[in-house]
Amino acid sequence: MATQHSRSAARLMLAPAVVLLLGWMLVPLTMTLYFSFKKYLPLRGDTISGGLDWVGFENYSRFIGSSAFWPSVQATLLIVGSVLVITLVLGVLLALLLDQPMWGQGIVRILVISPFFVMPTVSALVWKNMFMDPVNGILAHLWNFFGAEPVQWLSQASMESIILIVSWQWLPFATLILLTAIQSLDSEQLEASEMDGAPILKRFWFIILPHMSRAMAVVILIQTIFLLSIFAEIFVTTGGAFGTKTLTYLIFQRVLESQNIGLGSAGGVYAIILANIVAIFLMRIVGKNLDK
Amino acid sequence: MGQIVLSKVQKKFGDTEVIPPLDLRIEDGEFTVFVGPSGCGKSTLLRLIAGLEDVSSGSIQIDGKEAADLPPSKRGLAMVFQSYALYPHMTVRKNIAFPLRMAKMDKAEIDKRVDGAASVLNLTDYLDRRPGQLSGGQRQRVAIGRAIVREPSAFLFDEPLSNLDAALRMGMRLEISELHKRLDTTMVYVTHDQVEAMTMADKIVVLSAGIIEQVGSPLELYHSPKNVFVAGFIGSPKMNLIGGEVAASHGAHTIGVRPEHIDVSAATDGGQDGKWTGVVGVSEHLGSDSFFHIHETGLGDMITVRAGGEVGFTRGDRINLTPRADMIHKFDEQGNRIA
Fold first, then answer.
1. How confident is the model at residue A147 (pLDDT cuts 50, 70, 90)?
2. How many contacts does A have with B, using Cβ atoms within 8 A?
3. How far is it, in rounded angstroms, from Cα A14 to Cα A5?
4. What's this model's pTM, rounded to 2 decimal places?
5. Residue of B nearest to A196 (CA)
6. What CATH code would you report for A67-259?
């Protein structure tokens, strides 16, 4: 029973948290917006205390006009899309497999989930040096064993390599969520569909998959949020070369390699817009699932 | 057609024998109820018939054809589950149509059958809703609808009414009986509720620990229970089972008298005009009937009697009890009926 008093007291008590969160988000956002309209090149002697020149939308048009912009947007979407498809498909299959009663189930489940505990930087380095190294990597040895020429993964198939690494990291997450979804399926429903004459594939298509749709929606939403901003995997492997430069990486280069804070900030605003476009599409497709 | 014959059917889970070899014959068009306390194997038996469990040995014949090795969908049976097992993401129409879609029937025929089933079950107004938007009774009817559209040779019900409240349960009991009369199809029904069994069945199969204790019509079981277990299980309140000297005087190890077969009268001035005497404990007045729990009878356990609603004994009254002589059931040391 919330009275007028208790409600205002509640607001008062919530205020510090709300102010903190707002500050946390609003300060960087306003600074980014502010810098994006300024010429700010620290190496050329621009300082905030010395005053920055107002340049209008020049940073925005330069960022979008750069030959690296559209390829970076494409690379971002390609990575997000591919990783989503791979993790969902394999996640569903793995979840089905792990749901089967088997010997050593607990240990197998922990092993499956463990890649998620490895830091992105570490896992990318492990992949780069232990798997994909064209001389010493396990994959190179495998190729040699079969008498083939080892693939120089990160330079010849760089996009595929990064998608592989990122999928490997996120597959456990998808598997875990989908596994809990499968486990919550009422076994009588499966038996009923079996009696109704649905063979195993149709049971999967008509009963198991719709049951998992909500969990899949959650996986898609959460993964998209994190995948739009992947950075470490690219930084330690290709360094943005060979067409693997994502929007996040491009902004990093503009700010830290070219030391152009104004231009990078404009890129940051574009990244916000891109994330929102993706979010709107996703909510349209996936949000319906969450309503039910 | 829907004759089901089980012969030497046995089920083991690992080393535990859940159902020792048993034989059972269910005739075409019969309403058969499996009844027994929980864990007696009645649901397992139904699932064996349905094909959801594999028999360890023995044969199941459905309409004269060996079915023990057939998958569930090929046995021509339809099942209604305890949890209804409706598909939550499909509308009522799609739920009912699902088995027909799986049988690759053409669209027009599916619509015709679904509409037919819906009108029989009063579901026409709910066809576009999802199961989550329906009440318990309506969900139950959708589950039945999904079973009847297939026109199976027999229906299997696994405790279908146990999730409903008392009033709805009575209504659905009637509806299922009606349905049986109208469709004239074999039905096998599992329940732990002996009232459901008595009211609905043509034939009751009483099970205990996987063994068939007795098979017969409701009244046969009521009037001549084959053993102590059936005697105690069928009838409500439970039959009074009395051992000791009293039983010996009837030439039996145990005698049983149903609560409704004991006449009661007030014991004025402590006189002994009844056969037995006792003191009233708890009394339950239902209006139409009254149940009295009688203590200090010298017969061992407490005795339950059922009298008319107008009989008004209260706690502490001393009363006389007279069992009707022709209604006393006698059992030997093994618990079997003495004819």
1. confident
2. 59
3. 14
4. 0.77
5. B99
6. 1.10.3720.10
